[in-house]
Amino acid sequence: MKFLKFDETRDFPYYNHNPQISQENWVILLFSVPIAFLTYVFLSSFTSELIGSIFFMLIMLIPLLYVSNWDYKLFIRKPTRNEIILGILMFIGYMVYSMVIDNVLVNFGLVNPNGAAPLDINYISLISLIFSMMGEELIKFIPLMFFLRLFYKFTEKRNLSFALSSIIIMIVFGLLHYDFSSPVIGVLLLQGLGTSFELYGYFKTKNLFVSYLSHILTDATIFILILLGLD
């Protein structure tokens, strides 16, 4: 099957001066990540989740486009049919993985099934996913490309550098979901290691749309189940 084969005709951007990003622009990109996150928390709390999600995405997307000379195809492009299929498969894979891990954590007493605070979900939350999920992909993508560049500079091995960078991103992304209501192991396995499905989709295609599709399908499904009272 073609969609199970790696796309070797495309490469990761930025890491090998393709294009080159100056140190100053790397600083701008890296600072945009915490600024976007803090802005999202503030605006979602004091205005609306939708406004917070839009700014969350734009604060990272605009600098990324700027350092890319507005060539958005360096990191995202119109998906092919096979890429859409891959994104859906990664979504299904994560849903199965999360159910298995959640049951394991509960059975071993590592997570209290009634301990997590209920999510305040409404239809605005569902619409906000369009922007917030792209924001979450960018909050992973920008540091991922930075560490890829950093490791490649010393190892000159692209796939090894991507693997090392992915491990860091999975740990950090998992910890961003930690809310002090459950053990750290829960977020490290569910949100942290779980993001390997999205990273795999990007690794295969070099198209951020694939990981975005997988991510938004996951969260939209969870949100819809909550809205229907089926969670």
List the helices and strands and how they pair.
Elements lengths: L22 H24 L2 H19 L13 H27 L15 H33 L2 H19 L7 H9 L3 H10 L2 H20 L4
Protein architecture, described:
With 231 residues, this protein is mostly helical. The chain has a domain at 81-227. 70% of the residues lie in helices and 0% in strands. It contains 8 helices and no strands.
Produce a short descriptive summary.
This protein has eight helices and no strands. It has 231 residues and is mainly alpha-helical. The longest helix is centred in the middle third of the chain and has 33 residues, at 123-155.
The percentage helix is: 55-70%
Question: CA-to-CA gap between the ends?
Answer: 35 Å
Write down the overall geometry: globular
Radius of gyration: 18 Å
Class by SSE composition: mainly alpha
Keywords:
231 residues; 8 helices; 0% strand; mainly alpha
